[in-house]
Design a protein that fits this description.
Length: 352
């Protein structure tokens, strides 16, 4: 080990539109050790559905989060998602990684609905194609340059050094596989945040369906705001406070019920798409995360509507946690929202 060798540690930073999260993990022979985890609710006008709206404000909030939890590490892994990111499995003629690096933009052109000069491309060679021995399958990732630049800019403002830019749905898969054995089952991973939902269906260790949709807990706020004419922040307070008197509780329940019905319909549509492609397979399990998974009625409804076993991810399931240094009840409360952040925290600097 070099005395002045490059540090390979980093922290995971999930920049949610409502809650930003940071996690620090140290690998060990007995399993990952959770060193730090913290969250901060941010003002709802910093990050919108289509990206970062206030870089200075967001940079300040990220600094504040790091300070609050005594995180000094500057190397970070972040992730992006939503409509500006496209992940596709494609098939190309056999070639070396270097050759593909040279030609990936030509290959990608036909699969990407954006101008190819507007996106950053990345890929991973998955292996030989099942259908043609002269071809191989490649996982293609395209993300809008504007969005990536906005993230880099904000991290710069926060004084951080971006080491890895991951994709939300990959981070979700990463943390799920760290904590649970899929055993060849089909599992649907679904993270429902404030403004977006990431879906990733695994068949064994392979991801066979990945999609982000614009659904989230913010829809509930919008409906509350429309009914009682208030700001989104006020609506958020009303929603989270069981003793509020701004809106009749029956009305609130009705709003919540209509939104979770929406979510369930959209999720069923994705599952149906999976079943039409893999008619012989059965999704044994739906694993939920994100703030939306804290809505008990939703978990119940989804279980009934999908006839699957629906559970909530505990991203810390297999982590070693020092109960004298970390607040375990806080970890338990925030766990569902921590999945993507923890998927980022377990990445290492030299990972691809
Ligand atoms: N107990 C709860 N009941 C209902 N909703 C909740 C609860 N706890 C959190 N939420 C909602 O969850 C959302 C935050 O969840 P999460 O942290 O997953 O979102 P985010 O990562 O900030 O958003 P996104 O990923 O969409 O940008 C907020 O809209 C909040 O209102
Ligand atoms: Mg999120």
């Amino acid at each position: 080990m070099a005395l002045f060798g490059k540090k390979d540690t980093l922290v995971g930073l999930d920049i949610g539109s409502r809650t930003i999260k940071v996690g620090e993990v140290e690998p060990s022979a007995d399993g990952p050790i959770l060193k730090k985890f913290g969250t901060l609710d941010i003002s709802l006008d910093l990050v919108g559905e289509d990206g970062i709206k206030d870089p200075e404000g967001l940079g300040d909030s990220i600094r504040q989060l790091f300070k609050l939890y005594g995180v000094r590490e500057q190397n970070v892994a972040v992730s992006v998602g939503g409509y500006s990111v496209i992940v596709k499995k494609i098939t190309v003629n056999n070639m070396s990684e270097e050759e593909l690096q040279e030609t990936i933009h030509l290959e990608a052109e036909q699969y990407i609905p954006f101008d190819i000069s507007d996106v950053n491309l990345d890929f991973q060679i998955l292996g030989a194609s099942d259908l043609n021995p002269n071809q191989m399958s490649v996982l293609l990732v395209a993300a809008k340059k504007d969005m990536i630049n906005d993230y880099l800019n904000v991290l710069g403002i926060a004084g951080l050094n971006p080491c890895i830019i991951d994709v939300d749905a990959f981070a979700l898969q990463n943390i799920y596989e760290t904590n649970y054995d899929t055993g060849g089952d089909c599992v649907a991973l679904i993270d429902i945040g404030a403004t977006k939902t990431s879906l990733n269906i695994l068949k064994g260790e392979d991801s066979v369906f990945m999609r982000d949709v614009s659904l989230g807990c913010g829809q509930i706020n919008q409906k509350i705001a429309a009914q009682i004419d208030c700001t989104m922040e006020e609506a958020e307070d009303v929603k989270m406070n069981p003793d509020q008197d701004k809106i009749p509780s029956d009305d609130l329940r009705e709003i919540e019920s209509s939104v979770i019905t929406d979510w369930t319909t959209e999720i069923r549509r994705a599952l149906d798409f999976f079943y039409s492609t893999y008619p012989d397979d059965q999704i044994q399990k739906v694993a939920l995360s994100g703030g939306g998974s804290k809505i008990k009625e939703f978990v119940k409804l989804l279980a009934v509507q999908t006839s699957s076993n629906v559970s909530i991810i505990n991203p810390f399931e297999r982590f070693i946690i020092d109960e004298n240094r970390l607040d375990t009840s806080y970890l338990e409360t925030m766990g569902p929202q921590a999945a993507i952040c923890m998927g980022l925290s377990i990445r290492r600097v030299d990972d691809k």
